Automatic annotation (TrEMBL):
Binding site for (S)-malate: N441, N485
Region annotation Disordered: where it falls in the sequence: 1-32
Alphabetical list of PANTHER family matching this protein: MALIC ENZYME-RELATED (PTHR23406), NAD-DEPENDENT MALIC ENZYME, MITOCHONDRIAL (PTHR23406:SF34)
Composition bias type Basic residues, residue spans: 1-10
SMART domains listed in its UniProt record: malic, Malic_M
Catalytic activity: oxaloacetate + H(+) = pyruvate + CO2; (S)-malate + NAD(+) = pyruvate + CO2 + NADH
Protein known as: Malic enzyme
Pfam families given in the database record: malic (PF00390), Malic_M (PF03949)
InterPro entries linked to this entry: Aminoacid_DH-like_N_sf, Malic_enzyme_CS, Malic_N_dom, Malic_N_dom_sf, Malic_NAD-bd, Malic_OxRdtase, NAD(P)-bd_dom_sf
Species whose genome carries this gene: Hyaloscypha hepaticicola
Compositional bias segments (type: Basic and acidic residues): 11-22
Cofactor(s) it depends on: Mg(2+); Mn(2+)
UniProt-annotated binding residues for a divalent metal cation: E271, D272, D295
Length: 612
């Protein structure tokens, strides 16, 4: 994976780490040149984003009073990575490896991210799903030290003050907030949800270079309906059933308004809210602030990008496509929305007309207008007139496939093996290259195995999944299976919003992001390759997505940052210069008096935790 690291860090080009970029080195988020540090001795060693451990060079050891606090031999970052990887490899199981990585992040931020970069494929499932789900389920038992900001519904009056300790108006760029109700397919995890906020922010740094000490993970503790947690004497959250209704809405609003007052430039990412709230909260705040919900929009964006690549291979226009979605929850309706909006943007159709190209199937079967009160707010636009389904065989998935003859079938149902051989072959009998995406996570919940889909369609299916799968074969020919990994999409969108300081995240900005991702599909050059680019290339993917998002924000008059370059080449360099790297920068000693929060070690999780 060493080649990946070089590629992920290549944006410095000919600029040396201790030199400013001649064009953009004076930017506030510039990553070139030395950084000020007012800490010395153990205070410096205990500040993860400034600590270099055994890699402090001799001159910095003298300047910052470290000579007696470290072994004599100076390590390189590569040697530290090798040592850390050996330690990581001795851990007994995946959860122990996850805990080791958490500990490393609390000691040395650069080493933590560089270790992941060098072993990205291997470690992705450790730092994120599925292992992070195990860590969240065991949060109160594994707890060692606080990570992030804990707000609870019993203390709404303290929300503003609790948020305020994380810095000044210029200190926070990216906030991830959850209420812990619907975590990674494992349901209500209460206060343990803080770890999904932490994990998402790790991905924004790893995949898009968002500065890790300028981010803020938040959990809104509203209680929990998880009986196991309520009965657990070690549970650390509010020990009461979830609060809902007006009191809940007021709590969320207090958080949002406080965050906007304190950090007016910050982008807010809503994560793993429950089905009744996720879409509703997003719809409420989208017209007012730059915000995003990965479960709704991220899943929709990455899936739409894969669909666009599949349509290119099958030589079909988006405006002529018919799609069936099996599982019309947060993810399913989020995908439907992104596809509908893209059809409308490309064809000039209204959103209502575009929605008619999408059929949603859920627990009651095909969603119909007669279901009325059973429909969620997000499902209503996709409910069909009962009259158009009169005389059909039924309302189940097979009947819908027979009636609709879709080009695209997407599964977000969490119902394993629900894409049966009969259903898949029925679909393949009507279209030349069926586009089939079993997206439910984890793997045991997939609607179908890619090897079965490939076999049943005689190698014609264009497949993307929600988890990584090896290539599949048919009659000696190999086909790559794309992974609809949100991490190829949401970090670049967030980076674009952060750097442009966009007032909102518009529909057109999301469509621009999708097109930028789809344009990097390997299948555009070879139809047997994956429909989406590999996560290994995610830093460069994020540059292209951020560029598209920024250009669209400028076009719509939403960007508020001054001096955004117009030309593509300059804009890319402008973006790269502001992306944080897992590399040690030289430290320059500054006096504590007059030093900024960064130099004083007060930025990010570590700084706030140290003050509390």
């Amino acid at each position: 994976m060493a080649h990946t690291t070089r590629r992920m860090s290549s944006h410095h080009k000919e600029t040396k780490p201790d030199e400013k970029h001649p064009k953009f080195g004076n930017l506030p988020l510039s990553t070139s040149g030395p950084q000020g540090c007012a800490l010395t001795g153990t205070a410096l060693l205990n500040t993860p984003y400034l600590n270099k451990g055994a890699a402090f060079p001799p001159e910095e050891r003298k300047t910052f009073k470290l000579t007696g606090l470290l072994p004599q031999n100076v390590s390189t970052l590569d040697q530290q990575v090798k040592r850390a990887y050996q330690q990581y490899s001795t851990r007994a199981d995946d959860l122990a490896k996850n805990t080791f990585m958490t500990s490393l992040a609390e000691q040395n931020e650069v080493l933590y991210f560089r270790l992941i970069q060098d072993h990205l494929k291997e470690m992705f499932s450790i730092i994120y799903t599925p292992t992070e789900g195990d860590a969240i389920q065991n949060y109160s038992r594994l707890f060692r030290k606080p990570q992030g900001c804990y707000l609870n519904i019993n203390d709404v009056g303290r929300v503003f003050d609790d948020l305020a300790q994380w810095g000044g108006p210029e200190d926070i760029d990216y906030i991830v907030v959850t209420d812990g109700e619907e975590i990674l397919g494992i349901g209500d995890q209460g206060v343990g949800g803080i770890l999904i906020s932490v994990a998402k922010l790790v991905l924004t740094t790893l995949c898009a270079g968002v500065h890790p000490n300028r981010t803020l993970p938040v959990v809104l503790d509203c209680g929990t309906d998880n009986e196991e947690l309520l009965k657990d004497e070690l549970y650390l959250g509010l020990r009461k059933p979830r609060t809902r209704g007006k009191e809940y809405d007021d709590f969320v609003d207090t958080f949002v308004q406080s965050a906007r007052r304190l950090y007016p430039k910050a982008y807010i990412h809503f994560e793993d809210f429950g089905l009744p709230n996720a879409r509703r909260i997003l719809d409420r705040y989208r017209p007012e602030i730059p915000c995003f919900n990965d479960d709704v929009q991220g899943t929709g964006c990455v899936t739409l990008a894969a669909i666009m690549a599949g349509l290119h291979v099958s030589k079909l226009k988006l405006e002529d496509m018919r799609m069936v979605i099996f599982g019309a929850g947060t993810a399913g309706t989020g995908i439907a929305d992104q596809v509908r909006d893209a059809i409308a943007a490309d064809s000039g159709k209204s959103k209502e007309e575009a929605a008619k190209q999408i059929w949603c199937v859920d627990k009651p079967g095909l969603l119909l207008k007669s279901h009325e009160d059973k429909l969620t707010h997000a499902q209503i636009p996709y409910a069909r007139d009962d009259s158009e389904w009169e005389g059909k065989e039924g309302h189940d998935l097979l009947a819908v496939i027979k009636g609709v003859k879709p080009h695209v079938l997407v599964g977000t149902s969490t119902r394993p093996k629900s894409f049966t051989k009969e259903i898949v072959q029925e679909m393949a009998s009507h279209v030349e290259r069926p586009i089939i995406f079993p997206l439910s996570n984890p793997t045991r919940l997939h609607e179908a195995n890619p090897s079965d889909l490939n076999e049943w369609t005689k190698g014609k299916a264009l497949i993307a999944t929600g988890s990584p799968f090896p290539p599949v074969k048919y009659e000696g020919k190999e086909y790559e299976v794309a992974e609809c990994n949100n991490s190829t999409c949401f970090p670049g969108i967030g980076l674009g919003c952060v750097l442009s300081r966009s007032r909102l995240l518009s529909d057109k900005m999301l469509v621009a992001a999708v097109k930028a991702l789809a344009a990097q599909s390997p299948a555009l050059k070879d139809p047997d390759k994956g429909l989406l680019p590999d996560v290994e290339n995610v830093r460069e993917i994020s540059v292209q997505i951020a560029k598209a998002v920024i250009k669209q924000a400028v076009k719509e008059g939403l960007a508020t940052e001054k001096g955004i370059p117009e030309g593509d080449e300059d804009l890319e360099e402008w973006i790269r210069e502001q992306m944080w790297d897992a590399a040690y920068r030289p430290l320059r000693y500054v006096e504590m008096r007059g030093a900024g929060r960064h130099a004083r070690g007060e930025m990010g999780v570590a700084g706030a935790a140290a003050q509390v």
